[in-house]
Amino acid sequence: MTKRRRGKAAVAAGRVAPVAAPRTQARYLRDTDSGIIDARGVSLSESRDEIRRSWRRAAAIAADLIHNSGRLKGAVDQVIADTVGVELQLNPQPDLGKFGYSPEQAAEWRRLVKVEWKRFAWSPAEVDLRGKFSLPQLVDTALRAYIVYGEVTGLLEYMEQGERSRYGIRTGTKLNLFPASRLLNETNEVEQLYQGVWHDGNGRPIGYLLEERLRGVLRRERYPSRDSSGRQVFLHVFDPVEATDVRGISLLAAAIRKHLQHEKLDDVTLQTATLQTIFAAVLTSASPSTEAFEAIDALRSTAPAAADEFGAALSGYMLGSLDRAADSKLSVSADPTISHLAPGESFDIKTAGTPGGQYLPFSAALSRDMARAIGVTYGSLTMDHSNATYSSVRMEVSTLWPVVMRRRERIAAPICQAVYEQWLDEMIGTGRIPFKGGYRAFLRDPAAVSWAQWQGPAKPTADDGKSAKASTERLSNGTSSIAIECAELGLDADEIFEQRRAEHEQYRAAGMRSPYDPHPGAGGDSETVAEDADEQDRRRAR
C-alpha cells in the first residue's frame, strides 16, 4: 500500500516514471520499424524441390516471353553468338606419348583428326539422326533450349551399316536432340526416381523416363544413362545450383517478374504516347455566361430603365463580336485552320503530361536486371550505347566475359565433347583413323586419347588497336604464348602455324619476299635479314 501511494503521489506531483530503453541487438535479419522483413513470407527447401515445383511453369513463361519479345529474341541470339560464334573449333589434346607417338607423329595425328572431324561435324546427314542440321546448328538449338528449359537433353545413337547404306553415309554416330519437356517431371523416391531420372545408391543417374509420340500415340520409354560398355547414351546437360540437383531450370526464371514489369511499363507508355497524338482544343472566351443574362432579368424587377440600357449595351457588344467572329475561321480537322479570334478569346491545345523524366532511368534499371540474368551486356540487350565510353565498354565486357567462358565450358563444350568421344571411338574402331596398337590399345585409356579443348569466338574489344598492342607486349615480355593469344582470338594455334608455314614456303619458292620474313629495322639491317634468309635456304637444301 505504501508503494502504491507513493506512485500516485509522484504522478500527482507531475513526475512520470522513466520508460525502459529498447534492448540493443546484434543479429541477422534484425527488422526495421516498418516490419519489412517479417512481411516477406518465405520457406527454406532444397533447390531440387523448388525446381521440381516450378520447372514446367517457368519454362512455359520463358518460351512465351521469347516468342513475343524482339528484345529477348535478340538476347538469345547474342548468347549464342558470344558462346559459340560460328562453331566451337576442336583442339585435340591427346596424351599420345604413352602410346609410342613422337611429337611429330602426334602433331600429324591431330591434324588428321581435325580434318576428319570438320567433315563430319558440318555434314547434317552424318552428324544428325534426322539428317537436317550440322553440329554447329544443333549446338545453337541446344543453347536456346538451355535458356528456355535450363537444360539440354538428347540421345547419342548408333546407326547400323544397313541403315546407313540407305542414306549413303559412312559414320554411325548420330546425335538426337529433343526438347526437355519430353523428360517427364515425375518423382517416386521409393524407386529412386526423381524428376524423371533414376539414380543408383550413390546418386548417379542410371536411367531417364521419356514421353515419346509414335504415329500419334504417346508412350513412355526408359533409356539408360550408359550402355553395357560404359559409353554415354543419354545426353543431359544443365547448370546446377546445388550438388543434389537433378535438373536445371530456365535461365529466365529469376528475371521473369522484372521483364513482365518492363512489358507493363512499355504498354502503358505506348498508350500514353498514343494519347499524345490526340489533343484537346479549348476555346476560352470572355463573353458573358448564362448567369449574366439571368442578372439582367433580375435587374428589370427593381430598375427597368437601367436594365434596358444595360441590355442594349450588352446586345450591341455581342452583335459586334459575332460580326467579327463571322469573318474568322477555326477548323480542327485534317487541314487545320485558325484565323483571328473574337476579342477576349484564346485558343489552347492540351496534351498529355506523361511519361515523365523517370521513365528512362526506370526502364534502364529493369533492362539491366534482365541483362544480368541472361548473361549479356546492357548495351547488347537494349542496343543503347548513348552513355558508353571506351572504359565503360571495356569494363562491361571484361566483367561479363568470364560468364560467357563458363557457359561455353559448362553447356556448349560438353555437347561437342560427347559427340566427339563417340565419333573418335568409331573412327579408330573401324580403322578410318589409324592408331598405334589398334583399337585394343585405344580402349586401354580412351579418355587420354579423346581429351580435347573447344575454342569459341574471340573476346570483343572496344579498340582493336589497343588490344593488339597489349597482345604484342605480352608476347615480348614472355608472359604469354602464341597458343594463349590464338585462343583469345578464337583461333587454333596449330592451324595458324601450318597456314603461315605453307604461305611462307609458297612465297619463297616463287622467288618473292615472304611477309613472314623479319622486317628491316625490326631486328637488324636489311643485309643481315637477307643473309639470314639465304642461310635458311641453304639449310633446307642440305
- Radius of gyration, CA atoms, in whole angstroms: 39 Å
Secondary structure: helix percent: 40-55%
What's the mean pLDDT score? Answer: 82
In DSSP terms (H or I, runs of 4 or more residues), the helix count works out at: 19
Strand content: 5-15%
- What structural class results from the helix and strand content? alpha+beta
* Overall outline: elongated
- Low confidence ranges: 522-530
The end-to-end distance, rounded to whole angstroms, is 124 Å
Task: Compute the number of strand runs.
Answer: 13
Order of strands in the sheet with the most strands? 4-5-6-7
Report the major sheet.
4 strands, antiparallel
Pfam family, one: Phage_portal_2
Region (Disordered): 454-477, 502-542
Organism: Pannonibacter tanglangensis
Protein name: Phage portal protein
Q: What does this 3D model show about the protein?
A:
This protein has helices spanning 2-12, 47-67, 70-83, 103-121, 124-127, 135-149, 161-167, 256-276, 290-300, 304-326, 359-374, 378-382, 390-429, 438-444, 446-450, 464-476, 482-488, 493-509, 526-541, and strands spanning 89-92, 151-158, 173-178, 193-194, 197-199, 205-214, 217-224, 234-238, 280-284, 330-331, 337-338, 346-350, 452-455. The protein is of the alpha+beta class. The strands form 5 sheets. It has a 4-stranded antiparallel β-sheet, with no helix packed on it. The radius of gyration is 39 Å and the shape is elongated. The termini are far apart.
